Amino acid sequence: MVIVIIIMSVVTLWSEHSVTTKFRRKKQSMEFSQDTAHSGEIGTKKKVKRLLSFQRYFHVSRLHRGAIPQAPLHFLDEDYLGQARHMLSKVGMWDFDIFLFDRLTNGNTLVPLLCHLFNIHGLIHHFQLDMVTLHRFLVMVQEDYHSQNPYHNAVHAADVTQAMNCFLKEPKLSSFLTPLDIMLGLLSAVTHDLDHPGVNQLFLIKTNHHLCSLYQNISVLENHHWRSAVCLLRESRLFAHLPKEMTQDIEQRLGSLILATDITRQKEFLTRLENHLKNQDLRLEDAQNRHFILQIALKCADICNPCRIWEVSKQWSERVCEEFYRQGDLEQKFKLEISPLCNQQEDSIPSIQIGFMTHIAEPLFKKWYHFTESPLGENMLSHLTTNKAKWKSIQHTQHSSNGGSSGSNSNKINDHAGQGTENEEQTVNEGDSP
């Protein structure tokens, strides 16, 4: 009972210092290069300015313009806290409504969710984690998601984490997982889109963003999410008490998991999974095979929106398309070619969703069900089929009312999913430290 009270009280505890934290935190460099400063140059560290994250760049810009940041209020009455506690008791159920949980916690979704999951999985005890330090780390993670993004925000991260928790409990997988596997699964889920700018890699390349040069146009956003996550882990000192070799291993495996979410590597991972299933050689006693399945699980969690109930799935579909359209408006404003799926006049929500479900979601979740052979996998495919049929019905209605074609995005999505490269995991495989 005490730990439950502690977990839920974090919803309110940090409101009084949330603003000052933004100004006082001394940030490490977000992108760790190969040529870091020598240890003897301690005296000059204060003079070295790190590359600002997208979030902090815009925050500083507002301050320079004289705009005062508005601190969100996170005080809740007991009725809301009681409902949030009740929802956490059902966090392992697939019909968990993350939007309702976000409202009950007044936008403070990540902190109580992850504290609860770390507790029920025994990770706090196993890794001897300090509860205050864990709370501080999760607050930092939540702050570095962009609340102005319609889709890539902290609610999406929480949704992916809740889905990952469900996948970690799959009978085919759960009995083989170590505490480290579980912790990496949850950490990768909660940080997989950290500091996402709300635009895609193509937009960053078009605008000559420095991250594209840093990562040579390879998994640019995914590399950035990984390095940002490592930055927060080190700054919060969450694992400072663990052996150095272990923390380095955690950072590398975390990177491998996050990099797997690059949608352009979809064909690569599907082919590997298909071969494993065909050869029946997935030995989950082997750490490498477990890690591969965790990669697949994270990929599934990341794009599981079509597999949710219609009311929740529809909200996510509208949010992601709104983010696409905002990018298209930016590109049009700056006289750039509008990226695929980002033209609101040509790319309708139903056509985008039908193409995504057909070429991305269905193949992945069919293979996942082949692996799990579980009621959850069957339920997810059932939702996906139902939701796809609803979007087709909406598309037909729109097509009829418009008296013309609503456009098709199937080929755009299919082409994008297959643009993999053999070098995309180089930064991890070669042992680079973030």
Task: Describe it.
This protein is mostly helical. The protein has a domain at 79-304: Orthogonal Bundle (Catalytic domain of cyclic nucleotide phosphodiesterase 4b2b), CATH 1.10.1300. The protein has helices at 2-13, 18-24, 54-64, 78-88, 98-104, 110-120, 123-126, 131-143, 154-168, 171-174, 179-191, 201-206, 210-214, 220-236, 244-259, 266-279, 287-302, 310-333, 349-372, 375-402, 410-417, 426-429. Helix 11 runs parallel beside helix 17. The longest helix has 28 residues, at 375-402. The chain starts with a helix and ends in a 5-residue tail after the last helix.
Alpha-beta classification: mainly alpha
Overall shape: it is: globular
Radius of gyration using CA atoms only = 21 Å
- The amount of beta strand, in percent, is under 5%
Pathway: Purine metabolism; 3',5'-cyclic AMP degradation; AMP from 3',5'-cyclic AMP: step 1/1
Enzyme class: hydrolase
GO biological process, one term: signal transduction
Keywords: cAMP, Hydrolase, Metal-binding, Signal
